[in-house]
Write a sequence for this structure.
């Protein structure tokens, strides 16, 4: 079961990385960045479960313990990620209003 979780998280991360390499739309690039961020946060929370720790969680007859520091860091990263996503979306709206396109290739040509 552990391997399935790690493969799922790795698959999400590489899906976002693939999207970053292949997409040219600013909105799609922002979505791919959010997918990669979510995968990293899932990985961080998954790593916080230990056999010896502070708060017990019983799963499959084994007492697992979780580290609250990694969960607090994950919540902080979620808040920062939401604010940066809002900023990136606002900037993409301004770019669309100014140049009339969200295609990165066309925006590079306008650079001069």
């Amino acid at each position: 079961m552990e391997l399935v979780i790690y493969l799922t998280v790795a698959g999400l991360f590489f899906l976002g990385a693939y999207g970053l390499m292949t997409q040219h739309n600013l909105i799609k690039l922002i979505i791919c960045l959010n997918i990669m961020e979510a995968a990293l946060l899932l990985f961080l929370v998954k790593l916080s479960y230990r056999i010896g720790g502070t708060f017990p969680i019983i799963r499959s007859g084994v007492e697992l313990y979780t580290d609250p520091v990694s969960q607090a860091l994950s919540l902080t990263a979620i808040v920062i990620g939401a604010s940066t996503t809002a900023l990136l979306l606002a900037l993409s709206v301004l770019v669309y209003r100014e140049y009339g396109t969200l295609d990165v290739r066309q925006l590079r040509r306008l650079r001069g």
